[in-house]
Amino acid sequence: MKRRIISVTVLILVFFVSFQILYCTLGFVPIIGRGIANSKISSYCKHAIKTRYDIVDGTYFVVDDNDYCHIKYNLKNNTIYDPAVNALSQGVIDEKYILFKELFSSDELAFSKSLTVWTAVDADDYAVNYTKLYIMTI
Predict the structure, then answer these.
(1) Residues facing residue 80 across a β-bridge
(2) Nearest residue to 89 (alpha-carbon basis) of 109, 55, 132, 119
(3) Residues whose CB is less than 8 angstroms from the CB of residue 76 and which lie 6 or more positions away in sequence, other chains included
(4) What is the pTM (predicted TM-score) of this model?
(5) ∠71-73-79 over CA atoms, to 5°?
(6) Would you say the C-alpha torsion 39, 43, 48, 51 has a positive or negative sign?
(7) Residues 57, 65: contact at Cβ < 8 Å?
(8) Which residues are CB-neighbours of 70 under 8 A, at least 6 positions away?
(9) pLDDT per residue of the chain (138 residues) written in tens, 0 to 9
C-alpha cells in the first residue's frame, strides 16, 4: 500500500513537472492552447472552427477540405493572420511604394522591385493590425 502511494505521488509529480516544462518552453500548454485558439478564431469568423497545431511555426491553423490554410492564430502574440486582410495591406503598400519609387528615383539609389507585407490582426481588438514589412532584394 505504501509503495502504491509513492508511485502515484511520483506519477502526479512527473505530470505536473512535464506541464511546467511545456509552459516554460512554449508559453502555454498545448491542450489548453487549442481551446483558446478555437475560441478566438471562432469569434473572429463568427462560426464554430476547429484548429490544428503547426509545430514548425507555433501557430494554430484552420484548414478547409482542399487543405488550404485560411487563418492562423498565434497564441504567444495573441494575433490572427487572415490572408484577406494581408492582401488588402499588400495592395496599399504596393501603391504607396510605386509612388515612393517614382518620387525618389535617381541613378544613385537602387530600390527593391517589391515589398512583402505580413499583417496580423489583434485577437482581442480586430481594429488593431500589426504589419511587418520585408524588403527581400535590393
Answers:
(1) 73, 121
(2) 119
(3) 26, 27, 28, 58
(4) 0.73
(5) 110
(6) negative
(7) no
(8) 61, 62, 63, 64, 82, 83
(9) 788 888 889 888 888 888 777 767 666 666 778 889 989 998 998 888 888 888 888 889 887 665 556 799 998 899 999 999 999 999 999 999 999 988 888 878 888 888 999 999 999 999 999 999 998 776
Write out the three cell numbers for 19: 506541464
What would the 3-class secondary structure string for 54-96 be?
A: ECCCCEEEEECCCCCEEEEEECCCCEEECHHHHHHHHHHHHHH
CA separation for the pair 99, 5 (Å, rounded): 73
Grid coordinates given for 125: 481588438
| C-beta separation of 60 from 34 below 8 A | yes
Please, are residues 42 and 36 in contact by the beta-carbon 8 Å criterion? no
Identity of the residue numbered 121: V
